[in-house]
Amino acid sequence: MGEQNIVAGISAMPSLHNATSLLFALTAWRMDKRLGAAMYVVSAVMFLGSVHLGWHYAVDAYLGWAMTGLAWWISGCYARVWSRTSWNRKLDETCTDFSKN
């Protein structure tokens, strides 16, 4: 019997390394396009490195990215609905107007 390497062939579905790097890129893009572009490069390097080094299969990253995209879209929809509610505007005004306290 040969030696066993306990970390060889580790693969987790989905890849949270790739998912969070994409989430950071999406967030950075909303803040500043140049920063976002740099973070997309980091995300691509993370993808290539995680697959090349054998920590993940490519499909792990694809699923992580798909889940991140879905979460980003759902969060955006929720934020738009939340900002339209009249009771939320009243709550925001109360919480941010410190002269009334």
TrEMBL record:
The alphabetized UniProt keywords are: Membrane, Transmembrane, Transmembrane helix
Q: Which residues form the Inositolphosphotransferase Aur1/Ipt1 domain?
A: 3-74
Tree of life domain: Bacteria
Does the record's keyword annotation contain Transmembrane helix?
yes
The record, for Pfam families, names: PAP2_3
Q: Which residues cross the membrane?
A: 6-25, 37-55, 61-81
InterPro entries registered for this protein in UniProt: Aur1/Ipt1, PAP2/HPO_sf
What GO cellular component is one of the record's annotations? membrane
User: What is the official name of this protein in its record?
Assistant: Inositolphosphotransferase Aur1/Ipt1 domain-containing protein
Organism of origin: Agaricicola taiwanensis
